[in-house]
Amino acid sequence: IPRICDLMRAQGLTDVLLVVGGIIPDEDIAKLKRAGVSEVFQPGASTQEIVDFIRAHLKTAASDQ
Fold first, then answer.
1. Residue 14 DSSP symbol
2. Which of 12, 14, 37, 42 could cross-link 32 (Cys pair, CB 3.0–4.6 Å)?
3. What phi, psi does 12 have (nearest 5°)?
4. Tell me: the pLDDT tens digits for 20-62?
């Protein structure tokens, strides 16, 4: 994931929402967010939680324009 973040930055994709999910150790979440991940969804996260996060981000991005 950090490599993907580096490649996205190199391509100027700094405004792209990057979310990840899966079995990710708690101690790695802060590292991923520092690398550029917008949010980490662990097992048990509901689809609604993920949708709400994306919608909130889209509203923020739209109001910035």
1. T
2. 37
3. 75, 20
4. 999 999 999 999 999 999 999 999 999 999 999 999 988 766 6
Rounded CA-CA distance 4/48 in Å is: 26
Q: Which residues pair with 46 in a beta bridge?
A: none
The reported pLDDT for the residue numbered 31 is: 95
Scanning the structure block, which residue is given the tokens 């990840």?
A: 20
Long-range contacts formed by 31-37: CB under 8 A, 24+ apart: 31/2, 32/1, 32/2, 35/1, 35/2, 35/5, 35/6, 36/2, 36/5, 36/8, 36/9, 37/1, 37/5
Identify any residues that bridge with 21 across adjacent strands, giving them in sequence order.
41
What is the Cα–Cα distance from 42 to 9, expressed in whole angstroms? 25
